[in-house]
Amino acid sequence: MIKTDILIIGAGPTGLFAVFEAGLLKMKCHLIDALPQPGGQCTELYPKKPIYDIPGFPEILAGDLTTNLLEQCKQFEPGFTLGERAETIEKQEDGSFIVTTNKGTKHQAPVVAIAGGLGSFEPRKPLIANIGYFEDKGVEYFIKDPEIYRNKRVVISGGGDSALDWSIFLSDIASEVTLIHRRNEFRGALDSVDKVQELKDQGKITLVTPAEVINVVGDHKVDAVVVTQSHNIEKEFEIECDHFIPLFGLSPKLGPIAKWGLEIEKNAIVVNNALDYQTNIPGIFAIGDVNTYPGKLKLILCGFHEATLMCQAAYQIINPGKRYVLKYTTVSGVDGFDGSRKEAPKQVVKAID
Amino acid sequence: MEQDVKIRITDREGVTHEVLAPTDMAMNLMEVVRSYELAPEGTIGTCGGMAMCASCQCYVVSDTELPEMQDDEEAMLSEAFYVKDNSRLGCQIHITHALEGLEVELAPES
Questions:
Q1: A73 is in which domain, residue-wise?
Q2: 3-class DSSP state for residue A267?
Q3: Residue ranges, chain B, pLDDT below 70
């Protein structure tokens, strides 16, 4: 059981900044995120794109913003459960909550802050009628353990970075790699496109374009995929394989959180007001893009503000009745849980002759 | 208002809406759909308009002349589902006077 003060669901910019604000109030945080790395959309969707409305940064790349937020909160030693999706929540008799992920990891905290953005990122599944039947029987939407593909025949479909990168990676492990895409053009880093070209020329990757997988064939496990060459409907054929990996990107879904008994409106969690962003369940807060209230704006800068106010309310829950006054970091400095201290340099008081 | 253009948008339930879209607010078609709430929040414009998610895919029904497709829109549509010959990404269609009378249907959510 992982125990913490504030359990934050979602490690995007809002969740990461909440760690800092909580740390100033001596509260420890742990974050859960379905993605394998922190940063949320900023790292998953657009790490190389600039953002122009972060106060104090005329221009900052989304990936750099994540790096900075991690640096800013690191002395408060946040814990991370990455690559796992928060699945269930149970309220305990002592008022705390236990949140369990899809992989069974349990977390306990008196305060839960949902900073889930648009939801957890789920793979976009191709429109193949029987594909559900073959999930975990040869069809995978994520590559978790490349070793399971050793000496196997693998078909990958998709035209973006992940399809290219995994084709390259698996070409050294699998016995056969076939990459299928609807067009002849791929979109990815220039290096990856060139590398696939090179591996194709060496016969280590078979490219089938423009084409599409329209069916999966097999008895209890994947034996082959049925491929149609675009613009030539009569030309259908089977490619024998052990694994079929469709990589069509990720799309966010509110997912299991929608079943936690929270009030939901327009795919967002309703918070009582703009006072502390508490939901209809006391002790559970919703901050950042995942919440809604009159006047709501889905902006990172608003998420920072919401995270800050949420921490004040969390402090009252965790330390009932305890006195507290707002402190300025410039005056008080920042005392990390790791023993580090940041503070403004002392002024020199010295006579000038 | 003369800076508005009239656009017909058929939502995912098959209901057609005639809406006025401003040409002077740097809006795109995806944003027009959101501003009139013709698709639930969270189901359209997921990536914010970067041609990176295809949640604003629509089928162009009228023969309105549209700006040419750029590489990133074409690449995204090649990975999207339910794509037809007349598919476009709403976020890549900026509202201009040339769009007067445009008719589109929103593609299914995927």
A1: 2-121+251-342
A2: coil
A3: 1-2
